[in-house]
Amino acid sequence: MEVDGSTIYSLAARHIYTVSPSPFSRLFHLSKLVTMPLSRHIDANSVIESCKDHPHKQHLNTHSQRARATYHQSWSRDSGADVPKYTMPKNGIPSKSAYQLLHDELTLDGNPTLNLASFVQTWMPEEAEKLIIENMNKNAVDLDEYPACQVIHNRCVSMIADLWKAPTATQAVGTATAGSSEAIMLGGLALKKRWQSALTSANPPRDPYHPGPNIIFGANAQVALEKFARYWDVETRLVPVKAKNDFIMDPRDAIKLVDENTIGIIVIMGSTYTGHFEDVQLMSDLLDDLQKRTGIDVPIHVDAASGGFFAPFAYPNYKWAFDVPRVHSINTSGHKFGLVYPGLGWIVWKDETFLHKDLIFELHYLGSVEYSYTLNFSKPAAPFIAQMFNFLNLGFDGYRKIALKGLKNARLLSRALEGTYFTVLSNVHKPASPPAAGAAGLVKKAADVLYDEEDPERYQRGLPVVSFRLSDEFMKENPNIKQEWISIMLRAKGWIVPNYGAPPNEEKTEMLRVVVRETLSEDLVERLIADILEVTEGLMGMSPSQSPFGNNASGSFVVSSSSVWDDDVEGDEEEFYTVSPSSPPMVLCASEPPSFKSPVVPYLPTPSPSPPLSTPTPFYARNPTTLHNPLTTIITFLTSLPSSITSTLVSSYHAIHTATADPRTIIPIFQSGLASIAQFASSFIFYLTLPFTSSNLNPTSTSTSRSIHDSSYPMTSILNKRFFASPQTAGDAKDIMTASLAASSAA
Ligand SMILES: *Cc1c(COP(=O)(O)O)cnc(C)c1O
């Protein structure tokens, strides 16, 4: 039976999710499905369900087939989980089982350290975690009960206001929020209220509903800004951005959109696309000028979600905050460069008068009054306690050190990319001023030597973000390569590096982006560079028919493993499967009875001869924490492969599922096969073996022959054993391999 990648998917899914194999009758429903691309036509749940139903019904538990599909089937040595997935269980399961179930499921998530798509902090010191745990049961709104929390909160606001150069003459006010998004809602609402009250108190009063308020920001804005406008009925006036302008708002374009109903302009300190800072000072100057000419007075809110805790440390003299007169309010995310775990934002107003009284709620307690201006009532206190921990622990210098390290690593990455196949769109590696010509240039160059090369002021300002795309020359030489493949292939190596279109107006430009957070060490950057280059070079010179993800690829897989199926073959199926009746129903273990050595597998391409197994590749020793959603990877890779690749993969798949107990024996096939895809293929194998082991990479785990037939026994252990248990000798493996090859060519 020829099937495409989706069947492989279902096979993989079976191995992962079920213990009992399924009957062929159900599988053959599948054959109708498998001619269609997985992404559009196959309902994974029904595939999985159809694969679950197998004659070995004695292994099923008491639930009906239908119900079974919606049950969690997890494992735990103390007691397995057996609870409905979509309705609340009537009776609970032991805490250990609940833990194991969720813990295992969550291992499918990407690895946060390698998630270079996110600005959000993924690490805090142990002491911070201790404080968080000690205080995570405290609700910040309970002022009487937790006055110390309130004091710490207020001290945070005070430190942040000072960091942002709030003048001492005015009374700055602020609050913690769930993140920048909530903070932007509050900042925007304050602008709207201010505008409304100006209208109603005008003489004669103007109607605040017709034509209604508008707000201006760049097309590069984060979604939270548009959310504010839509949620609070404010017209969005999006300033188009241009590639030549670094994909950020040009204040000269923004000013053209202002009218008397503009409640404010949001200037972004740290564009999410490229890390560039928009020019707050220029915006303020232009608005001053506008006011002089027209009397229209428009304030600025700065969205400093990322820049708020970065610019003050990296560029202490840069004017963007409350030292720019028109800036009324600033938001930031404590959980980005504030270096706190997710769940914390801040907003500060330069002067309490910028906050309309209607927005402030008085909370009276113990004879004193506290003011509250938030969208949420209850809120955890732990995040801002963790923020204060950072303030105390790092201090200004500590934050600065981390900022400089991030910029340094961003420069390293940028230069490596620019020196090879890429064009870098972010700017923190570019000199602040272009080198002067002639003698002046030479003098400057000489002087530069004396400067501190790590001083960020020597380079253009921005967040430690590296946005890049394949260079024009590269694209000319390799017109068939899609940039997004790099992102997909990097994902197979564990890295999460998004590839996305530039903001509206320039969306045809695609960019890859790496956020250089504290946890992306120089060591990791070096690995990342090596992996980006390896992946890119792996794609070079591909013809359209070879492209790993191309549209014209015709994928087909041969389902080969007799051991996967049982002996309940009926009717037509026999034409496709000749199954050794004595082979175990599902998994072949190297140490199982010898029956597994005689699989009869028709319709298989003959694998290329296997070279001697001299140097076992120790890839089973990979660190499990670098693993991430293997299933997605398999699906992505397999759904549309060209046949040259599939035949190699099929050989490997065959070998894995029929005879070979050790993935090491597979690798030579790849090496002798298509050299250019060897790396790709080995990662396929790696991922194929991964799902079985990601929850438990214990190489000493053993299982018994009986356990294979025991539906309650964890699949993971069985497969662990198969791939990771007491290593057989290379000689053994070779024998098995040879036997398998002989068997398949005989067939
Ligand atoms: C991240 C981000 C936001 C949203 O912040 P959250 O803290 O995730 O709510 C808004 N604006 C910009 C520029 C951002 O980078």
Could you describe the 3D structure shown?
- The protein has 747 residues and is of the alpha/beta class.
- Among the domains are: 1-69 and 560-747, no CATH class; 77-109, no CATH class; 396-433 and 454-544, Aspartate Aminotransferase, domain 1 (Alpha-Beta Complex), CATH 3.90.1150.160.
- Helices cover 39% and strands 10% of the residues.
- The protein has 26 helices and 17 strands.
- The strands form 5 sheets. A 7-stranded mixed β-sheet has the order 4-10-9-8-7-5-6, sandwiched between helices. The chain has a 4-stranded antiparallel β-sheet with strand order 13-14-16-15.
- Helix 1 (5-17) runs antiparallel to helix 20 and helix 8 (147-163) packs parallel to helix 14.
- The longest helix has 37 residues, at 382-418.
- The protein starts with a strand and ends with a helix.
- Mean pLDDT is 72; it is low at 1-39, 57-68, 550-640, 659-663 and 665-741.
- It binds pyridoxal-5'-phosphate (PLP).
- Pyridoxal-5'-phosphate binds at residues 119, 179-181, 222, 224, 268, 270, 272, 303, 305-306, 333, 345.
How are the SSEs ordered, and which strands pair?
Layout: E1 2-3, H1 5-17, H2 24-33, H3 38-41, H4 44-52, H5 65-69, E2 71-73, E3 82-84, H6 95-106, H7 126-135, H8 147-163, E4 173-177, H9 180-200, E5 214-218, H10 223-231, E6 235-239, H11 251-254, E7 262-268, H12 280-294, E8 300-303, H13 311-314, E9 327-333, E10 345-349, E11 361-365, E12 368-372, H14 382-418, E13 422-424, H15 438-450, E14 465-470, H16 472-477, H17 483-492, E15 499-501, E16 510-515, H18 522-539, E17 557-558, H19 573-576, H20 630-638, H21 643-658, H22 667-672, H23 678-689, H24 705-708, H25 715-724, H26 730-746
Parallel strand pairs: 5-6, 5-7, 7-8, 8-9
Antiparallel strand pairs: 1-17, 2-3, 4-10, 9-10, 11-12, 13-14, 14-16, 15-16
Helix pairs in contact: 1-4, 1-20, 7-14, 8-14, 9-10, 14-18
